[in-house]
Amino acid sequence: MTKELEHNFVTDLEKHQNIVHKVCRLYTNNQNAHNDLFQEISIQLWRAYPRFRGEAKFSTWMYRVAINTAITLYRKSKRRVQTQDFDTVLYKIESTSYDDTEEEQLRIMYKAIKRLSDIDKALVFLYLEDKNYKDIAETMGISEVNARVKMNRVKSKLQKILNP
Amino acid sequence: MDQLELLKKDWKKQEADLPTLSYDELSKIIHKKSSSIVKWIFIISVLEFALPFLTLLFPSYRDMSMSSYEKLGLTNFINILYIAVYIIVVGFIFLFYKNYRSISTNSNPKILMHNIIKTRRIVKYYIWFNLALVPIIGGVAFYKLFNSADFLEKVPTDINMTMLWLLSIFILLILVGLVWLFYRLLYGILLNRLKANYNELVGNGNGNL
Fold it and tell me: Model ipTM?
């Protein structure tokens, strides 16, 4: 692969790296696993880049490859020792901007999302990223109706976890 | 759902807390080694394809089995079978390569998972094909052996042929069973999570993919 292609890719990756970090945040529980998954997604993005023809936006394409890697290609997270509670690192909520009830609600919500299946996590992730059902359906390879049904199921699952 | 909307707002705010890697750090990362299951699937599959041919590397083993077949008058049968096997194996390798090439992270997760499962399925059929050869060759060899005059002379009179056949079938079944167990384990380690995710995504409870 040419130097120019690599330069373009790394520049785009640098610009949109937050997408990859957010996927890692959802699918891992500690900093080591986060770094590991980030590395694997970056490698997969780089490998797939020559076949990315710019039909979609770079960021849209990144969502797909990142989710693919997290739910399909990556297996190492379970083998990692969870040495650091990721909640305290990345989900730190500043007490000044939240009241106790809201803070507690968010904490429980993040914990609840961590307990969802790989597929449900991907749906929630795309929802949190403000994607509409058409985009969610396209990214996941399912019909729009199916995406709505699945998302409604996820919402009730979360509701159940929040109010057992 | 109010809580999910609340979370959406918070999710956006947290972007500021995300780590940021520099251009140089990212340049290094993309050249590191992948630990993707597709890499492992490829390595294991190539080994599986090569395994039945490894015996050819040991001339003494090859000559020994060929001389046993000669004694039983099975040379022609084995030669024809080998030609058929080679043709079928080439077909398997072609199908494997074609499916392996179709695995791309540019596809959506449903197609990607389907293609990985399809590629592994080719190798699974290849293994079953090899396993099917065991009772075919074994059955014919046992049949010839049990009907050869040399063998019949050595067999004690109190042992009947039914017992010998049952014992032979038992040995063959144990052999096939061991390989089957090994594969259940290997598939379990490699593909269980992927299959579960695929079934959940396509919305069927069918685990036999």
Answer: 0.77
pLDDT at A99 over 90: no
Q: Which residues in chain A are contacts of B106 at CB distance < 8 A?
A: 48, 51-52, 61, 64-65
CB < 8 Å from B in window 35-64 of A: 36, 38-40, 42-48, 51-52, 61, 64
Q: For A162, which of B3, B18, B203 is closest by C-beta distance? A: B3
A77 and A151, same domain (yes or no)? no
DSSP letter at B22 equals -
Both A100 and A50 in one domain: the answer is: no
pLDDT digits (tens, 9 = 90+) for B99-138: 999 998 888 999 999 999 999 888 888 888 888 887 888 8
Q: Model-level pTM?
A: 0.77
Residues in B closer than 8 angstroms to A48, CB to CB, are: 104-106
SS3 assignment, position B108: coil
Please spell the DSSP secondary structure of A117-149, one letter per residue. -HHHHHHHHHHHTT--HHHHHHHHTS-HHHHHH
Interface contact A104, partner B, CB < 8 A: no
Domain end, chosen from A92, A117, A148, is at A92
